[in-house]
Write a structure and sequence with these properties.
256 residues, alpha+beta, N-terminal domain of MutM-like DNA repair proteins, Helicase, Ruva Protein, domain 3, 4-stranded antiparallel beta sheet, elongated, binds zinc ion
Length: 256
């Protein structure tokens, strides 16, 4: 699942490719917008909030989300696509570039003035210009019994963290992922770590994971073998693909 830094970097590439240019061809391959044609519209800006991506014309905002499998690619006109054509959901082309969104989980077109409705429910954006650590803390503390490993994934608390970075943040702070929010003494430091990790990944990629994906391999701190657990999510009981990786020695379970 793409994380906030992936979307932030995609927005940066797409901004370079499209912003300030006029659309010469658009193709919305989703039933709801199949007849929408934005040819002739200028792209004023491209931006991200958490995992949400926005292309803005003077009147409209095209809101997209990668969800599980989505990806954006930028081509020169006529260049062969690197992903199967039938998975393309949105094509935005200018005279000298063609941006293709493959397997997008969401495509919707909003009036510019309504763009905020796509993100109003989200917590502060870890990579946004208005990152607000105090607001993220307030939202986390509103659910004191929630395990931190789930709370970090909940975009209503803070926006931008996926499965990779929730493991990394808990590992770096030596916190067991099942620890309830109320039992974490240094919650502000953990929120600060989340901001630091995402910022580094977005501005100095690639991020090299210390814990994520390293089960049965030695902990970089203490050499104990790392483990992967499934953290049952009461709101999504059928999801079993979200293993969280941690060190059982450095991140002991909190005494309850
Ligand atoms: Zn360790």
């Amino acid at each position: 699942m793409p994380e906030g830094d992936t979307v932030f970097l995609a927005a940066k590439r797409l901004r370079t490719a499209l912003a300030g240019k006029t659309l010469t061809h658009t193709d919305f391959r989703v039933p709801r917008y199949a007849t929408l044609d934005l040819r002739g519209e200028p792209v004023e800006s491209v931006g991200s909030y958490g995992k949400h991506l926005f292309f803005r014309t003077p009147d409209l905002s095209i809101h997209t989300h990668l969800k599980m499998e989505g990806a954006w690619r930028v081509y020169t006109p006529g260049q062969r696509w690197t992903k199967p054509g039938f998975t393309a959901r949105l094509i935005l082309a200018t005279a000298d570039t063609e941006a293709v969104g493959f397997s997008l989980g969401l495509v919707e077109v909003l009036p510019r003035t309504d763009e905020h409705t796509a993100t109003d429910h989200l917590g502060p954006d870890l990579l946004g210009p208005n990152w607000d650590a105090d607001e993220a803390l307030r939202r986390l503390r509103a659910h004191p019994d929630q395990p931190i490993g789930l709370a970090l994934l909940d975009q209503r608390n803070l926006a931008g963290i996926g499965n990779i970075y929730r493991s990394e943040i808990c590992f770096l702070r030596k916190v067991h992922p099942a620890t309830p929010i109320a039992h974490i003494d240094a919650l502000p430091a953990l929120v600060h770590e989340a901001h630091r990790v995402l910022t580094r990944a977005a501005h100095h990629p690639p991020w090299r994971a210390l814990a994520y994906g390293r089960q049965h391999r030695p902990c970089p701190r203490c050499a104990t073998n790392l483990v992967v657990h499934l953290l049952p999510d009461p709101t999504e009981p059928t999801r079993t693909d979200r293993g969280i990786y941690f060190c059982p020695a450095c991140q002991p379970a909190s005494p309850l």
